[in-house]
Amino acid sequence: MDVGRFFSRRRADFLTRPASFLPAEAPNIDEMLFAPVSAFYWRQHELWDGTYTLDDLLDILEVMAVARENDARARESH
Q1: Which string of b and e fits 28-55 if b means at least 16 CB within 10 Å?
Q2: Within-domain flag for 24
Q3: Which of 31, 36, 38, 66 is 20–30 Å from 44 (CA)?
Q4: Domain count of the chain?
Q5: How many CB atoms within 10 Å of residue 13?
Q6: pLDDT tens digits for 7-41?
Q7: What is the dihedral of CA 72, 26, 11, 18, to 10 degrees?
Q8: Residue 57 class from Cβ within 10 Å (0-12 exposed, 13-18 middle, 19+ buried)?
Q9: Is residue 52 part of a domain?
């Protein structure tokens, strides 16, 4: 893994939108780690078998955040 790339990642700063509900939380799993699995990008066994690296996890989380932000912006524009 290229450590320099990991530590030079920039934060994606999006608006914070208030939720109209109290979201449920998973008390027994790491929701950040399982986010690509619950979004059907990855399979659970791929978290543990070496298929993906920490850098891959950070990349997919960023892609997912950008997609959510673009969806929210599209909804707000109508």
Answers
A1: eeeeeeebbeeeeebeeeebeeeebeee
A2: no
A3: 66
A4: 1
A5: 6
A6: 678 888 888 888 899 989 999 999 999 999 999 99
A7: 40
A8: middle
A9: yes
pTM above 0.85, yes or no: no
Alpha-carbon span 21 to 42, nearest angstrom: 28
Query: DSSP string of 12-58?
Result: ---PPPPPSS-----SSS-HHHHHHHHTTSS-GGGGTSSSS-HHHHH
- C-alpha to C-alpha distance for 78 and 74, rounded to whole angstroms: 7
Domain assignment present for residue 12? The answer is no
Hunting for tokens 């959510």 — which residue is that?
68
Residue 25: other Cβ atoms inside 10 A: 7
Number of Cβ within 10 Å of residue 56's Cβ equals 14
Residue ranges making up the domain that contains 45? 29-78
Residue 14 belongs to some domain of the structure: no
